[in-house]
Amino acid sequence: MDIVFRTDSSREIGTGHVMRCLTLADALKEKGCRALFICRDFAGNIGGLVRAKGHEVVYLPHRQDEPDPDDRVFHAAWLGTSWQQDAEDTATVLRERFDRPVDWLVVDHYGIDAKWEKTLRPYTRKIMVIDDLADRPHDCDLLLDQNLYENMEKRYDGLVPPGAIKLLGPKYALLRPEFYRARQSIRQRDGTVRRILVFFGGSDPTNETLKALKAIKMLDRPDIAVDVVIGSSNLHKEEIAAFCRDMPQVTLHCQVDNMAELMANADLAIGAGGTTTWERCYLGLPTITIIIADNQAEVLTVLAQNGVIWNLGFCHSVRIVDITQAVRKLTNCRICLKTMEKLAQQLLDSADDGYEVVCLKYLL
């Protein structure tokens, strides 16, 4: 089977869309499928990582034209061109690479909606959409939204064709195999914080990583080890590295491939929303979260209301001292940490084969 992914990563977009597509592509590769990633060559993209995993990447050319002014898709500018031009660029790749329609076209992009998808219909047998926003219509056969919302079952009513299959909720979370292995052998935390993990995604444009480090330094607990993870596209990495050098208990990691191990070893995390949310929950890692993008707000709010995480709110209103106070309170409350751990794991109890279900039952 030939499966094509249309997705992007950049310093603005982040890396989460490509990473969850990569999880799916890796699983499909094990089943004998061929995956092709079509991405625009934005600054800070992680196409190199996709290639390192053994998948082909075709970069779309830079365009000078502006997004369609009549396009009502909120994130239309993330395409780097008009939707019409992006659709034509993608169609050109498919015409050149394949002599027949591909088996699946997987779209994970906030800048794409039904207009684009209908244009690409002649080049694919079926279309899968991975989305979180439910803010635009889609012309798809299969839709995956792995997030938790109060109105989850009704969010896409009227936005997808009546016959489309909808896979909704964390039980379909696209977790990499390393997380399944880590959960099988995970230690039982006792509510004592000996190690903190700090990770705010691959790009962290507002530099919440440094803010969290300053908060931990203010905590004045040199006995607590700290793992800090940043992506290769992080523009602040030199500043973060310099700050880490003055904190002997801190280990800085860049573009890691052992995130599950780092999460399993941690007793507390400080981070943002996105795909990492479900990775932390699956491993029962208590977390203090900071919202760094509007699309993270609803999910993190629901999780906080259910006691799964401690959400401090939007990054622009979170002070260093707010993080310090939250960490101090949790380090002094074993029952709080144990409760968060239990609730997080229970939420993802049904996700033990999420990506396998998506692959075997729906794509193959």
From TrEMBL:
The family database entries (SUPFAM superfamilies) matched by this protein are listed as: UDP-Glycosyltransferase/glycogen phosphorylase
Q: Please name one Pfam family that this protein belongs to.
A: Glyco_tran_28_C
Do you know which InterPro entries this protein is assigned to?
Glyco_trans_28_C, PseG
Summarize where substrate binds, as residue positions: 176, 279
Q: Which residues cross the membrane?
A: none
An example of a GO molecular function for this protein is:
hydrolase activity
List the catalytic residues. 17 (proton acceptor)
Q: Where is the signal peptide?
A: none
Q: Which organism is it from?
A: Sporolituus thermophilus DSM 23256
Domain Glycosyl transferase family 28 C-terminal residue range list: 197-294
Q: What is this protein called?
A: UDP-2,4-diacetamido-2,4,6-trideoxy-beta-L-altropyranose hydrolase
Hydrolase as a keyword? yes
Keyword terms of this UniProt record: Hydrolase
Gene3D superfamilies found in the cross-reference section: 3.40.50.11190, Glycogen Phosphorylase B
